């Protein structure tokens, strides 16, 4: 069985290092959600029914394991030990970094440069008749704004990935129509006790 994602050391520097943040999310999603079919197939006991020699006499176009139901106990164990803990770690990272993105950033190395650029733009005399493009000014984005945009994008990606994973889990495990959010929230509530 796969292992849940390990929790990174959460600091503002981790969040502002967008490469490290994206790599963590990509690797966590890749090991659990993107390979959900392989993870679910690993729950099936191989050769449970024994070898049937007649199975080699005809060509089978579909995998015999495809669509095969997984015992409910194994599905539940997978959700509680691997899937939900990984989702929890990613949710904690996204929540923490979203908080960092909405907090003031006194350590922003580019804030002085932005202030200088803003004051130069205010002092500039623009005659748009001579140069219609001279009035354009594109201020550089603060790193908190960039992080906030990244968090919105990553939350949208996370929602899509969770829905796909939950759909495949529902097909293979024969689960009820409970949403992924409701099941995850219920699991998190049991973990906080």
Work out the radius of gyration. Answer: 25 Å
Question: Looking at the structure, what is the overall shape?
Answer: elongated
pLDDT averaged over residues:
80
Q: Which structural class should the secondary elements be placed in?
A: mainly alpha
The overall strand count is 0
Through-space gap between termini: 26 Å
Low-confidence stretches: none
Q: Helix content range of the residues, please?
A: 55-70%
Q: Helical region count?
A: 7
Report the sheet with the most strands, covering strand number, pairing sense and barrel closure: none
Order of helices and strands: HHHHHHH
Strand content: under 5%
Can you characterise this structure?
This protein has 193 residues and is mostly helical. The protein has a domain at 12-42 and 68-105 and 142-191. The chain contains 7 helices and no strands. It has helices at residues 12-16, 18-31, 36-41, 72-102, 111-123, 143-173, 180-191. Helix 4 runs antiparallel to helix 6. The model has no long low-confidence stretch (mean pLDDT 80).
